[in-house]
Amino acid sequence: MRADLIVCGLGPAGRAVAHRALAAGRPVTVIDSRPDRVWTPTYAAWADELPAWLDPTVIAATVEAPTAWALREHRIERTYQVFDTAALQRSLTLDGARVLADTAIEVGQDVVTTASGLRCTGQVVDARGLARAPERAEQTAYGVIVDRAALEPGQPVLFMDWRRDNGAGPDEPPSFLYAVPLGPGTLLFEETCLAGRPALTPAVLRARLTQRLRARGITLTGTEPVERVRFPVQGGRSGGGRFGAAGALTHPATGYSVAASLSAADTVAAGNTLWTTQARAVLALRRAGLRALLALAPAEVPVFFDAFFALPARHQRAYLSGHDLAGTTAAMRAVFAAVPPRLRRTVATSVLGLTGR
Question: For position 356, what pLDDT does the model report?
Answer without folding.
Answer: 44
